[in-house]
Design goal:
This is Related to aquaporin. This protein is mainly α and 411 residues long. The chain has helices at residues 3-10, 17-27, 58-86, 90-95, 103-123, 134-142, 148-172, 191-214, 223-238, 248-258, 267-288, 310-320, 337-362, 371-376; strands spanning 387-390, 396-399. The protein contains 14 helices and 2 strands. A hairpin with a 5-residue loop joins strand 1 and strand 2.
């Protein structure tokens, strides 16, 4: 036995598991690769194909991919189904002929996509994040939110979900076509215009995701609402000119189900990805400049203003010669380092005084009803009229200005 084990045995203590384990591992070859409860290294319930040490990340990736597939299918089924319904009147449903887009139709399509994304993203927000868009997946991968493996799984799941959603629209609606929901450039829109429209609209959507969902703040739980409203606003503009793809899965799914790819289909892949990269560049630039130092503590519990009211500033300037542009010391955007340092020192001194009072009250006996109040934060300055001192008998003696003798026991 080692010196540690011998000392433990002599004192009558039981050896710890870590000591015994480390001791055995020195003499038994390859002990670290064997089961802890089996001396001969035989695993009673060995799983040769899906052992935890090798496939420890399989279940999270599988759940994320499955959730994105179901969520993307649900989102595009609702959105594309609403868009197809908006373009078919009662008579057109019988003749399977689409009507031209009107203002009501545009509003119907935009509402279908916006509300569908809002609902489905909120449902899957705590499961997969509710991305449903390969452009957003690539943007989150570039910002470091997603690993390469997770991003690849989500990318493929979203593409498959787009195909499944378009297939459901084709099979569950009377018109045996999905041409009403395919994305293509309208007459009068050239390649450059269509590319820029898709890129800029997608960048707005991705930037909303970055600021509302990736950046954590008080309004993060409302991110699905903001993202859905952003998609709604983008469709109000882009639905007439490009079909407002903004999502490779949304454009690829109907094209696969319809069996036809337009000559401008590449725009609905490259432009959204470029829009996502543009948003990541802008977002990274804002993070580099520490953007949250510009506004006045948006997530603060108390109202904090950078400048004092104008009449106070004028009075201080006339009476005391104070700079009218001086900011309040308690503001996080204060640029006067000396005033900020003084404010921090005052706050630290007040905190230390409160802590000293709390520690002094906790040192007193419990039956003085001070320790409990101090633990709860309800304390007041200590009374200096008397001191309490513990004795060797376990009781306490109360010493004050008068001479008192004998222990004082609690009631």
């Amino acid at each position: 036995m080692s010196s540690v084990e011998e000392s433990g045995a002599q004192q009558g203590h039981r050896l710890s598991t870590d000591t015994a384990y480390s001791r055995r591992s020195r003499f038994i070859p390859f002990y670290h690769h064997r089961h802890h409860n089996d001396y001969y290294g035989e695993r009673r319930h060995r799983r040769r194909h899906f052992g935890k040490p090798k496939f420890s990340g399989f279940q999270p990736h599988f759940m994320a991919g499955l959730g994105e597939f179901i969520g993307t299918t649900m989102f595009l089924f609702l959105a594309e189904g609403g868009a197809k319904t908006a373009q078919l009147s009662v008579s057109a449903t019988q003749t399977q002929t689409a009507t031209p887009l009107s203002n009501e139709t545009i509003m119907f399509i935009a509402t279908s996509f916006g509300l569908s994304l809002l609902v489905t993203a909120w449902m899957f927000y705590r499961i997969t994040g509710g991305l449903f868009n390969p452009a957003i997946t690539v943007a989150l991968w570039l910002t470091g939110v997603l690993t390469s493996r997770r991003a690849l799984i989500l990318f493929v799941s979203q593409i498959l979900g787009g195909i499944a959603g378009a297939g459901l629209v084709l099979g569950l609606t009377p018109s045996n076509s999905v041409q009403q929901v395919t994305t293509t450039l309208q007459p009068g829109i050239n390649i450059a215009q269509g590319f820029l429209i898709e890129m800029l609209l997608t960048s707005i959507l991705v930037f909303t995701v970055l600021m509302m969902a990736v950046e954590k703040h008080r309004a993060t739980f409302m991110a699905p609402v903001a993202i859905g409203l952003t998609l709604f606003a983008c469709h109000l503009f882009g639905a007439v000119w490009t079909g407002c793809g903004m999502n490779p899965a949304r454009s690829f799914g109907p094209a696969v189900v319809a069996g036809s790819f337009n000559s401008d289909h590449w725009i609905y892949w490259i432009a959204p990805l470029c829009g996502g990269i543009l948003s990541v560049i802008y977002f990274s630039f804002l993070k580099l400049l520490n953007y949250n130092s510009v506004v006045l503590d948006q997530d603060s519990d108390t109202e904090i203003t950078g400048l004092k009211p104008i009449h106070v500033r004028l009075w201080n300037f006339i009476r005391h010669g104070e700079n009218p542009s001086a900011l309040n010391p308690e503001s996080s955007t204060h640029y006067d380092k000396e005033a900020r340092k003084q404010f921090d020192n005052e706050q630290r001194q007040e905190f230390e005084e409160r802590e000293a009072v709390r520690r002094e009250m906790q040192d007193k006996p419990v039956f003085d009803s001070n320790a409990g109040e101090a633990a709860l934060g309800n304390f007041s300055p200590p009374q200096r009229t008397a001191d309490v001192m513990s004795t060797s008998t376990g009781s306490t003696a109360h010493h004050s200005g008068q001479n008192q003798s004998g222990p004082i026991l609690p009631k």
